[in-house]
């Protein structure tokens, strides 16, 4: 049964300050029954949508200043959060690792150098940097060459021991194994683009002179390409890596250029192959084969690369809802807190932090929300979002959230095409979440009176027709909320085409950018 709650008190604070600042506006005497009752009625009406008849809907709205609960239905029920899980992972990372945290990738030598010959092994050691590009591995290889090394008599050792060897998260679907949004996790990995989709390669096809040409970004021989596609009058092509292999099979017809992001089978082997190819280009020959292992004590550093800061990484991570960033940060937290780069250690850090900041109904199985066994209550999410407002890193973290109706990808993110032209545009800062039959939206909005509100909307188990517009209607209504005005005219949401992504977050299907 749906329960609504509206606390009717004699006064409230009207906020005009930034979200990160402490409340200091003097109280204004208002009739609290004006506006709050209308809000309750309107949200009940929005949630009476027939698509939710057999679904589960949890919604909580609170004043950020007073903690007053303005609306609640199923506030304490455990619901699937999808990518709302990243709210907890990102905040815990900011708290545990710090906004200045950087991932390091280094090249070490285990032997002695005599002239241009290095007698011993060359070690490539990673700590999980999801922003490493092929050009970054090339820059490391160039530094090795500039150090005067032309021949390595030993092996190329890929040291990914900063994290454990477990590659895939709890409960991840086996048929997502080749999908870039469920790429395997390793302390050594590489991204094909500056969205930093670690552990994946972009495979592109184009029709040229009656044939189908295949290219990859980065240009790499790591994948085995089996091209069975033909040039045709339309583009109807499937680009798919075969389960558990490096083989990408391409079938169908190609008229217009098309590309697909494909997860690699082994990110450590992939990254070390990029580095080895770069060494060859720079005239450095490694006589031994490529193996995995830990760098020995006393190995000497020849070259190093540092990532952008965590504060900077939060933007592509949160705006584009990057699953791999979430899982890498989870293992990085485990490594820092318990010297164990594992999901178990990292999830304990996040869970402990979440519980210490108001999230009492919580079950975390991964850092991204890809698992369907992740569970939070909307009440816990709101309590958590309220608690972190006082953190020193809050302003940076808040700015990393997607912003409704802002068309720039790295501003609006997964909300860039939603709520445009409404009072919520440029106002709502919130994290989206999408799985089949699951959608969520949780974050912050400023009311028409300038009062900061915190909300969580979690809709589960609907069968057809994405109810994201229900989330949008609620968010817009909160942006219109006034304690002094009896009612508001409803805003007509612009019709949006969900495109090929359907119910899924648009960032999950790369050709259909948000």
Task: Give an account of the 3D structure.
With 514 residues, this protein is α/β, with parallel strands linked by helices. The protein has 3 domains: 34-99 and 311-480, DD-peptidase/beta-lactamase superfamily (Beta-lactamase), CATH 3.40.710.10; 102-165 and 267-308, 3-Layer(bba) Sandwich (D-tyrosyl-trna(Tyr) Deacylase, Chain: A); 200-263, no CATH class. 25% of the residues lie in helices and 24% in strands. The chain has 11 helices and 25 strands. It has helices spanning 33-46, 85-96, 134-146, 267-281, 310-319, 323-338, 343-356, 378-387, 394-400, 409-412, 468-480, and strands at 11-12, 28-29, 56-63, 69-73, 104-109, 112-114, 117-119, 122-126, 151-152, 156-159, 200-208, 211-217, 224-227, 230-231, 236-241, 247-254, 258-263, 285-286, 290-292, 300-306, 362-363, 375-376, 429-435, 438-446, 452-460. It has a 5-stranded antiparallel sheet with strand order 4-3-25-24-23, with helices on both faces. The protein has a 5-stranded mixed sheet with strand order 19-10-8-5-20, with helices on one face. The chain is globular, with a radius of gyration of 25 Å. The relative contact order is 0.18. One of its GO terms (molecular function) is serine-type D-Ala-D-Ala carboxypeptidase activity. One of its GO terms (biological process) is proteolysis. Keywords: Carboxypeptidase, Hydrolase, Protease, Signal. It is an enzyme of class 3 (hydrolase).
